[in-house]
Amino acid sequence: MQPNRLIACVRCPMLRVEPAQRRRLEQIARNLRDRIEEARINGWLGEVQGLQISLDAAGRKLAALQRPPADSRPRPSLGMPIISGERR
Length: 88
Fold this sequence. Notes:
This protein is mainly alpha-helical and about 90 residues long. About 60% of the residues lie in helices and about 0% in strands.
């Protein structure tokens, strides 16, 4: 997977991170901080802004991992519907 695609996923509000992936998300956040510093040194202000948006999103996802789920009740499995016969 290309790094930019991974960052785009971190920004996605629909992405729910598995708790087992916490370390990977922390790595991504560290990498983003390093890249922001490099961009600042080189004067790449647009790059700084884009990377900061991704870092903020990663921070929100890490914070969400620390919160307990709003509804911890088990979810019922509805399974697949069985369709019998042909309708005309």
